[in-house]
Amino acid sequence: MPPLLVINPHNGVPAYRQLMDQLKLQIATGVLPAGTELASTRALSAELTLNPMTISKAYNLLEREGVLERRRGQTLVVAERSSGDAESDRLAHLRDHLATAATMAAQLGITRPQALRIFRETLDATAAKSPPAP
Length: 134
Prior knowledge:
By secondary structure, this protein is mainly α.
């Protein structure tokens, strides 16, 4: 069962897409490692109070993408990924978020040098708060 999934019905993104994005992020960050069994469609639909078809759609699309795989008995698990694929997934998530930030910067009339300075400052502030890597 995924640790935390939150579906916002008011943000304009379809629920199945929110579910897919959150599961992909949890997989990319290692919260859901390879081999982790996912909740059944019925159980997750009850937990999130979503239509079971919404859960099924998200699961099926993730399976087609190779993110999830079915095991004997039709259990869905997180698929094994190479370290290169995992790195690509993490970078893709970052690019998606930075694209949103870049659009916002343009809409706010923030120049490229200003935006880069703010990003560097944010990275530095985050690094200062984070414990050192092992």
